[in-house]
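Could you please consider the sequence and fold appended to this message?
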Amino acid sequence: MSVARSGHVAVSLNDGRVLIAGGMTDGNSPATTLYSAEVCNASTASFTTTGSLLVARSVCSASLPADGRVLIAGGYDDGGNVLASAELFDPISNTFSSAGTMTSPRAGHAVGTLATGDVLMAGGANASGKLASAELFRAPPPRVGPPMNIADCKGGGWSRFNSPRSFKNQGDCIQFVNTGKLRGWAVLTRDQGRGEGGTLGARRTSPAFA
């Protein structure tokens, strides 16, 4: 790795890479909690630094919601305080963004992605002691897109896409295809975000904890 770390998280991405984020490094003691993150490419046996966490954290959780981003939540900050904040890593832009706040600060908790794509968080501990509570992270909308040709934009098809962005109307979608902005997105599969029967999945509500 580019940085020696412990108490970090690692999660396999849908593209085959592994995200490694946060944790602590001894350095010239005391230990420092890390903002840094990196991805491991198994095919080249290499590590590459990527965007930094919004909040330095260790002993946090990492999971993969329905849309393929990585949810990183809770843990301890550099002062030893238990965090309630959460953030999402986008493997396309290699950046982190806020995912809101858990209902309870927690560190050392367990996580699991449900069949719905939502993420269950359970247990852990905070300043009050060990926790028996659990909560759900409501998954962001599944990624649908990009449009591969003009036909995908017609007949209202433009309204189904939210990756790499949403479109204002049919013309906006067609312009996206015609101007070559599709280049660089061809690695995405058209099956991402599809519901049962191979139809494009309906959009969900915004991400939230409950």
Remarks:
- The two ends are 35 Å apart (CA to CA).
- The chain has two helices and 16 strands.
- The first strand starts at residue 9 and ends at 12.
- The chain has two domains: 9-138, 150-209.
